[in-house]
Specification:
About 40% of the residues lie in helices and about 15% in strands. By secondary structure, it is α/β, with parallel strands linked by helices. The chain folds into 5 domains: about 1-60 and about 170-190, no CATH class; about 65-160, Nucleic acid-binding proteins (OB fold (Dihydrolipoamide Acetyltransferase, E2P)), CATH 2.40.50.140; about 190-255 and about 695-710, no CATH class; about 265-460, P-loop containing nucleotide triphosphate hydrolases (Rossmann fold, 3-Layer(aba) Sandwich); about 470-625, Rossmann fold (3-Layer(aba) Sandwich). The strands form 4 sheets. Strands 11-12-10-13-14-9-15 form a 7-stranded parallel sheet, sandwiched between helices. α9 (about 230-255) packs across α24 (about 665-680) and α9 (about 230-255) packs across α25 (about 685-695). The longest helix has 27 residues, at about 230-255. The structure holds adenosine-5'-diphosphate and magnesium ion.
Length: about 700
Amino acid sequence: MQASAEKTAPQTTGRPFILDPVFRRVTDLPGVGPRNAKLFEKICSGDKVLDVLWHKPIEIVDRRFTSDVAQAPAGRIATLTVTIDEHKAPPRRNLPYRVKCHDATGHMDLVFFHAHKDWLAKQLPIGSTVIVSGKIDYYQGNPQMAHPDAIGSEEDRSAIETVEPVYPLTQGLTNKVVRKAVQGALDLVPTLPEWQNDAFKKQNSWPDWDAAVRTLHNPPGANGLELTHPARMRLAYDELLAGQLALAMVRHHQKRKQGRAYQTGGALRETLLGALPFALTRAQQRAIGEIDKDMQEPIRMLRLLQGDVGAGKTVVAALAMLNAIASGCQAAIMAPTEILARQHAESLKPWLEACGIRFVILTGRDKGKARETLLSQIRNGAAQIVIGTHALFQEGVEFADLGVAVIDEQHRFGVHQRLMLAAKGSKEKGGVDVLVMTATPIPRTLTLTAYGDMDVSKLDEKPPGRKPVDTRLIAKDHLGQMIDGIARQIQTGARAYWVCPLVEESEVLDLAAAEERYEVLEARFGERVGLVHGKMKPADKDAVMEKFAAGDIDILVATTVIEVGVNVPEATIMVIEHAERFGLSQLHQLRGRVGRGADKSYCFLMYGNLTKTAKERLSIMRDTEDGFKIAEKDLELRGAGEILGTRQSGMPVFRLAELPAHADLLAAARDDARLIMDKDPDLKGPRGDSLRILLYLFERDQAIQYLRSG
Ligand code: ADP
Ligand code: MG
């Protein structure tokens, strides 16, 4: 008992016991031991039984197809019944062992390389009738089957003539082993109370949850793998509902708590607008109008400000923060990295100073006495605006009275972190209004999955005077010419980013690629080249970035760390190596680093070998600079996970739902979630219990914790 308790995944608070079996470790499954568990983790992206259940087959082999020898079609998997005539050992070592056999219609050979003679003699005794299943091919005009996948006697017929799922694999794992583990996982599947609306389920003819999971892994035929199969639809819907419900709960409980009614506009805003060297765009005016409306009302704001890189989100954030300050509260703005936090501070500084607002910067780098001083300024209200990184979430950071939190997430924070900052507000006074800013041009269908029905303001217009970036595709063989070209540009004062991509999802290898390129460029340009990467200490990274910003270096070689927000208007060249390995939205963000100043800018997308789709994708980059268009196209070509950049997004990645194919289900799940929140916001009713199970099943139980602490 002791041992199995140790193997069990740590119990999350409150998870219903009925789910325990599927939260056990993969090592509890048949055929999975400590050695291949890592491989399972890799292909199933998780180490729980549940992850194995979500590992979907990609193909099926239909062994129900039977044929006689004369009709056996080349290249197809078939099951045949044959009588064994003769064993022919090969005359030479590198030739195969042949077993001759026949049925009423003709003769064929079973072929074995590196055969074990004794084993074959036992499996295929001369004169016996056997069932063999495998791929048919033709050799010198005669049918043969090399290494049958299954051999059996008449009694084994029903076990052989099946539909066999084929799973995505990795080196060291065979389909057989994965199937065995999956079947073991299916044995652990509990019968769960139904969380779906009865009428809706009937109307769609969907099976129960456990039946759907079984069907997923025992597809009845080729259509069993289709996204529109009722079993798959049901599971996809469950997953989407869990996501939508979690978001709806967060939103509902955020909203239901009374927020505060703030003064908007006023003298401070006049001062700030007067201090700006530009007029607001219409899109910026619209956005701040929408924010004002939220803030005037006594409910909590939860708004997403979506705007392409360079669209001018910062000034909108500043105006929102001024609303809180005009009403005597504090405001905070949080960035995903230290560099970005400092850049925000730099952009905001002249504006805040013009308004006489006291602000502090708090990052993980502040330690000891200095940190204490900052913390006390935040606690006693001396700091009206706090600019920082995720350090703002940490314990010990207490605000006198936080009114508005702006989260510049640049797609790096998750819902959870947003909630933690929101929880920094004073409950008696009505909590914190939240404005989330994102530069990821998320297509509409995906906004819903990532943010639920959060209110959205869009900056769909760029400030005037931006020049288009001249984007070119360059084969990587032309590296030499590329470098020559850059050398010429640099002589006229240009500055260039040089981005080296992710290699095999490994930071070590990424770094190696960037370092290698750095050395090549350094050999040519000497100390005018700098290198930044994710493994550097923040202070060192900042130092290099600052040198680039100041013009002390001309070429900045970087891994994707520069992806987010840096602002060096003098940089006019962006080189991206192996552009085909990036998501389009990521390329778009990178390209957004240039084209910010007065001079003409270039983006060179260097590519290795291109598939047709890859070529199409890169051409989109060349043809448009509209982030939304790019994202829609990317969604069409690749699917959701890729766009959102699964590794760093904090956004949900679906195991069963697939967008845009299941977009209708998503809309239905959203409506369902809303209805549930209207009727039973605390999930206390009869459907509530099963819905809680659903949330735990898809690991969206954060929403439940929130409900509890809320
Ligand atoms: P992002 O949306 O990427 O955060 P920023 O807020 O950093 O964009 O703005 C990019 C640049 O555009 C900044 O230099 C900012 O001062 C400038 N800017 C913002 N709004 C306007 C405007 N209405 N007219 C001209 N320039 C603007
Ligand atoms: Mg910004």
